[in-house]
Amino acid sequence: MHTETNTEQLNAVEAAIRQAGGVKNCARLLEVSERLLYHWIKRGHLRGVAVERVLALEQKSGIAIENLVGRSRKRRCNGA
Description:
The protein is an all-alpha fold and 80 residues long. The protein has helices at 12-19, 23-30, 34-43, 51-61, 65-69. The chain is globular.
């Protein structure tokens, strides 16, 4: 299995976790399981995650919260 080492090719969540010391350290820092971190990496965003955890990861990694949360999808209303 090939793993990208260049943070430019990683999603922001994975890059932040690596810059903050890796999965094991981040799990301790954020008080979550390593499995949950891998789930966040797979999703590629932290929308819906407790703001305290997102802020802690932002502070530890230096990656802006906007990049960690990602764009929200706007729903369009077609008149009613």
